[in-house]
Amino acid sequence: MSSNAPDPAALAQSIKEWGRELGFQQVGVTGVDLAEHEAHLERWLEAGYHGEMDYMAAHGSKRSHPDQLVPGTLRVISLRMDYLPGDTRMTEQLAHPEKAYVSRYALGRDYHKLIRKRLQHLAERIQQVIGPFGFRAFVDSAPVLEKAVAQQAGLGWIGKNTLVLNRKAGSWFFLGELFVDIALPVDEPTARDHCGSCRACLDICPTEAFVGERVLDARRCISYLTIELKGPIPVELRSKIGNRVFGCDDCQIVCPWNRFARPTEQTDFQPRHSLDNAELASLFRWTEDEFLSRTEGSPLRRTGYQNWLRNLAVGLGNAPSSIPVLEALQARRDDPSELVREHVHWALAQHEARQNS
Predict the structure, then answer these.
(1) Between 1 and 5, where is the model more confident?
(2) Which SS3 state, helix, strand or coil, does residue 205 take?
(3) Sequence-separated (6 or more) residues with CB below 8 Å from residue 104
(4) For residue 176, how many C-alpha atoms fall within 13 Å in the half-sphere facing its CB?
(5) Whole-prediction pTM value?
(6) CA–CA separation, 212 vs 43, rounded Å?
(7) Out of 61, 142, 172, 267, which residue is the most buried by the measure of CB atoms under 10 Å away?
(8) Is 131 left (phi over 0), alpha (psi -120 to 50) or beta?
(9) Active site residues
(10) What DSSP letter does each residue of 91-160 carry, written as one string?
(11) Dihedrals phi, psi of 322, to nearest 5 degrees
């Protein structure tokens, strides 16, 4: 740090102001000791609740030791950015089984690039004041216990649905981190849990993925099944998925704290290609080229075209038997992908069984 740099407390205050200028709603600072959260992660991994997400078990202790992941790290700056678009009629969309429900975070542009760029700008701003320093930015992209960091930096508490909750903003926000080698003063962690006796998120889960409070069996979670899982969706869970084709927001929609969530001011997070009001059947007709062009710069790319069709086939199998639904499924009966074919045949069998009952 250069000799004319502000003292650490003044610098921390400036960093928070610069963060807000860059579009973050809150900025906090914490140290590198995540021991309490490390024990929780180890128990979760031992139970196998991470499913095929091998990256959760990789990297040894680096995930819970920021100074091992980036040697020299003294503090972690944790930042949150609201992402909820205005009125995206979430419950209305879920109540129309012929419509496709896409998790609200994935309706607009991919948040990774936008937030990483803002974190880079923040680091450059710090550098202008104190001179060269060591830093590294993360956005859901490396072995970082981002929710633990956010809680310890005072951004909120970890709710029963395993998400970070904030009394003024609910849970509709992204998190980003800046690892720095500056000894900034740390913020008070969020010590109080404001969930109380509420169980709304645990009870609403369509696939009963919560093993208990703050313990999620990802193998049953619709976000995992529709995004992370590469192979077939377990047959016994398909009918429970309903029309959710990319992620699931039920445990957020029902959370009382989300009454305080404010719509995002980021235009990049606004819905694209009418994905907040699309029919399952019309999405199922997208060619691979259409999928690639319409999901450019979107989180939807992550699932890949075949798994996108797999998810839509399940949604169509759960939809009411209508001519557009049945025609869409029939059109892909002989799809070149065995994975897609199998889910299409399951969907058609669902309609047949309903007609015969």
Answers:
(1) 5
(2) coil
(3) 83, 84, 85, 88, 90, 172, 249
(4) 29
(5) 0.95
(6) 13
(7) 172
(8) left
(9) 140
(10) HHHHT-TTBPEE-GGGSSS-HHHHHHHHHHHHHHHHHHHH-S--EEEESS-SS--HHHHHHHTTS-EE-T
(11) -130, 165
